[in-house]
Amino acid sequence: xxxxxxxxxxxxxxxxxxxxxxxxxxxxxxxxxxxxxxxxxxxxxxxxxxxxxxxxxxxxxxxxxxxxxxxxxxxxxxxxxxxxxxxxxxxxxxxxxxxxxxxxxxxxxxxxxxxxxxxxxxxxxxxxxxxxxxxxxxxxxxxxxxxxxxxxxxxxxxxxxxxxxxxxxxxxxxxxxxxxxxxxxxxxxxxxxxxxxxxxxxxxxxxxxxxxxxxxxxxxxxxxxxxxxxxxxxxxxxxxxxxxxxxxxxxxxxxxxxxxxxxxxxxxxxxxxxxxxxxxxxxxxxxxxxxxxxxxxxxxxxxxxxxxxxxxxxxxxxxxxxxxxxxxxxxxxxxxxxxxxxxxxxxxxxxxxxxxxxxxxxxxxxxxxxxxxxxxxxxxxxxxxxxxxxxxxxxxxxxxxxxxxxxxxxxxxxxxxxxxxxxxxxxxxxxxxxxxxxxx
Length: 440
Ligand code: BGC
Known about the structure:
Blueprint: E1 18-22, H1 25-28, H2 39-45, H3 62-76, E2 80-84, H4 87-90, H5 95-109, E3 112-118, H6 132-148, E4 155-159, H7 161-170, H8 185-204, E5 210-215, E6 219-221, H9 226-249, H10 264-271, E7 278-281, E8 286-289, E9 296-298, E10 301-303, E11 310-312, H11 329-342, E12 349-353, H12 364-382, E13 387-393, E14 412-414, E15 421-423, H13 425-439
Parallel strand pairs: 1-2, 1-13, 2-3, 3-4, 4-5, 5-7, 6-8, 7-12, 12-13
Antiparallel strand pairs: 8-11, 9-10, 14-15
Helix pairs in contact: 3-5, 6-8, 7-8, 7-9, 8-10, 11-12
Bound molecules: beta-D-glucopyranose.
């Protein structure tokens, strides 16, 4: 495999900077019949939910092929691997044994295991509308930490509670498929509470390197008109600040706390448990303006006409096969913006996901995407943001939720008929880039 695209050497990152790749359980593991069902299994079984009609029953069959995948990680030369622990699998007899084997294999290969305790595959019998799910999540965290804590040092509580709330409960595009719009807000609160309780459970088990993977992207107002600026600000509250202010400032953005159930003030004390680092998943900025009074098709979603904002097409940038604009400089803007907003309350940042979907094994566009984003990350470092790591989404092509297998985010191609793995040009490029970092 040849990485044809001759990019200039990447700038040098500080010693100890953590390079990694990410995946999630439901998207790669398969072996669905060897675990309890999750909300994603039920959602996938509903006709029309998954665009290509596929399921994650086999996915990449990582559950059975993990030694091969760990060898790919070792060959790539990453320091760390972010994967997720399937809560329904942990609840199944022998389920934790799989993560035991995976963690052993990673340690033997010299790759640090970085598990996420929840990446959207909620056990079918649970529901984030119920406050009790937060307490159950803390139990789950304790069980996993007790089993893996001797070898796992770096932990992630939740993946993207914002997307799980928005797509799964407000818009119904993801499992569990509810379309509650603003009535989905308790789902956000219960996940944040779950996060805080899990931080406490992990600390009680001796963990001292805990973060979260929150999705963030700059919101750009469609114009300077007051209506557009106000609409963009509202969108930014819902998708960004609703999930970072409680964690980092111990309060909800104005107007949100009143909409939430329970004793929010006392919950906020739990939610704001200090973190050792703050994980950011970055994909794209969003342009937002005043409502236009019509349904909008955006990124595969149908947004209702009566929202107090409208999402606009961001023109003038290259787009990925998913139609997402490629805007590396927005990553610098995002990180500098987080530092400005949160100051000393912002712990060191780790980019826990960044990547793109493109077809093909000779994926020169992915190389250009990653090259641009790593440079943008370095510019944030130069501007004083304490960034400690960067994880590419994803190690390999996988089940891209409601899109099925149609979107390929991997550094490694997966043939879904034979399950054969083939490293793409981007894998070769990243391996060379990491070697060059290590040499300096
Ligand atoms: C999620 C991943 C997903 C990726 C690409 C993130 O929102 O954490 O599970 O595959 O984006 O859509």
